[in-house]
Specification:
alpha/beta; Rossmann fold; about 45% helix; nitrogenase activity; ATP-binding; Nase_comp1_asu; iron
């Protein structure tokens, strides 16, 4: 077993079994780190807790709901606005966050009275919102507040409102994935089957495990609607509370993020006989295969094929342009969860980059199995890394860019490595055919950014270049001088640049020394 113990973690030898370097010819029996275990004491983990997994990941994307945390104010602030779960009701769930603000006196004497007062105040403050989700935190779970009883009491007094209680204290699992499970099961137990929907199509699905990050879900919904499919509910991006109560009437559960939402799909299959179909909206190949699978289920493959043909013809030339310029660039794929296997192979295949590392902060063994299986030799796989291990990995691997969250991403920038936000995106959406080109464009911009190149210079000794020294400018100079090509709206990088290219081509641009060259 090719375990890798980071030097910074030699004082925590157990960490050695949580990192693996995939060797020549090795399969999953030889290259799988331990995962989904309690964080080892002494390792400053970047994980979220079970409460975070329930509220921040699954619950908050519901659009017409007051999301209130029963606990200290810090729990709510930590799970507010850190992802771009947009919605079509003016992003109500992003603009406001609610908490009971439990303090020391409430821990001693109980906080049930405080909770009821906050529930009533919230509904009065926003009379157009009639639905609420209450999330339990560690503090109120430990003192034993009966949140369900308070919710029932309020609903009796205010019959036009409906309240969902999610008992998801932070200690409810080894990571935020434990919270995913809790809210999935609680929703199907308490709310599914309590509303009867209007069926308007012969083909009806629930779109599950999709959270509408920067409009991802809207892209996929457009494809389904073009195929004549009715989307009964979305769990939970831009999802309506009452629509999600009607999930039991779908003919098929289309599952995107298996790590966060497979639990409810499995329960709906057991209780209501609704089959589950896993899909992937990232990448031309996986997306095409996914649309075909959904089409085959309903016997409308021709509709899927029409969409695939039109979108591929429109966007593939642009993707190929980026692939040529990204070929061989080294990438650390550190998204935290299921994107490590959604992206691991397809970005190599369709964008030409090389994945040199994958990690997961809260994923299960299945996530790591799929991620490592889709990586090549020499890839470093890490479970639940801490900040120092991330530093050391960057120094060892020397990637051109990493895909990760804001906290490790900002750390990477300090050592001169650009990052793309894998959780909330930089300029999404990234799903769909156009979205995948947009992702490639963001990678290209991150790697070739003039600002990033300046940041890598040592101003005490390196020459400071003008804009003439950057790779992007030189690439413009090498572009075609054919005005029909240079001004082609489908060539997104050089649109309308004919005069600029002509001017740049007439000059010569010296290669400015980089820090690495100077050291040699």
């Amino acid at each position: 077993m090719p375990y890798h113990l980071f030097k910074c973690s030699e004082c925590i030898p157990e960490r050695g079994k949580h990192a693996v370097i995939k060797g020549p010819g090795e399969d999953l029996t030889h290259a799988l780190p331990l995962g989904y275990l309690n964080t080892i004491p002494g390792s400053i983990s970047e994980r979220g807790c079970a409460y975070c997994g329930a509220k921040h990941v699954i619950g908050t994307p519901m659009k017409d709901v007051i999301h209130i945390s029963h606990g200290p104010i810090g729990c709510t602030y930590d799970t507010w606005q850190t992802k771009r779960y947009i919605s079509d009701n003016k992003d109500f769930q992003l603009h406001y966050t609610f908490a009971t603000d439990v303090r020391e006196k409430h821990i001693v004497f109980g906080a049930e009275k405080l909770l009821k007062q906050n529930i009533v105040e919230a509904f009065k403050a926003f009379p157009h919102i009639k639905r609420m989700t209450i999330y339990q935190t560690c503090a109120t779970a430990l003192i034993g507040d009966d949140i369900d009883a308070i919710a029932e009491e309020v609903m009796e007094e205010m019959p036009d409102v409906d309240i969902f209680v999610c008992n998801s204290p932070g200690f409810g699992g080894p990571s935020q994935s434990g919270g995913h499970h809790k809210i999935n099961i609680a929703w199907v137990n308490k709310k599914v089957g309590t509303v009867e929907p209007e069926i308007t199509s012969d083909y009806v699905i629930n779109y599950v495990g999709e959270y509408n990050i920067q409009g991802d879900q809207e892209v996929m919904q457009d494809y389904f609607k073009k195929m004549g499919i009715q989307i009964l509910s979305t769990f939970t991006g831009n999802g309506s509370y009452d629509d999600l109560r009607a999930m039991h009437k779908a003919q098929l559960n289309v599952l995107e993020c298996a790590r966060s939402a497979e639990y409810i799909c499995n329960e709906l299959r057991v209780r209501y006989g609704i089959p589950r179909l896993d899909i992937d909206g990232f990448g031309f190949g996986p997306l095409s295969a996914s649309l075909r699978k959904v089409g085959m289920f309903f016997g409308i493959e021709d509709r899927a094929e029409k969409i695939i043909a039109e979108e591929t013809a429109k966007w593939k030339p642009q993707l190929d342009w980026y692939k040529e310029r990204l070929k061989g660039k080294k990438v650390c794929l550190w998204p935290g969860g299921s994107k490590l296997w959604h992206w691991a192979h397809v970005i190599e295949e369709e964008m030409g980059v090389k994945v040199v590392s994958v990690y997961t902060k809260f994923g299960h063994q299945g996530d790591m199995e799929k991620g490592i299986a889709r990586c090549g030799e020499g890839a470093l796989a890490i479970d639940d890394p801490n900040e120092l291990e991330g530093y050391e990995a960057l120094e060892m691997l020397k990637p051109d860019i990493i895909f990760t969250g804001k906290r490790p991403g900002e750390v990477a920038k300090k050592v001169g490595v650009p990052y793309l936000n894998a959780h909330a995106y930089h300029n999404g959406p990234y799903k769909g055919f156009e979205g995948w080109v947009r992702f490639a464009r963001d990678i290209y911009n991150g790697i070739y950014s003039p600002i990033h190149q300046l940041a890598a210079l040592d101003i005490s000794k390196d020459e400071i270049p003008t804009d003439r020294g950057f790779a992007t400018t030189r690439m413009l100079a090498d572009a075609s001088l054919d005005p029909e090509v240079a001004n082609d709206p489908n060539r997104c990088e050089y649109t309308g640049q004919y005069d600029l290219v002509k001017d740049l081509r007439s000059r010569t641009y010296p290669e400015f020394p980089r820090k690495a060259d100077a050291a040699e």
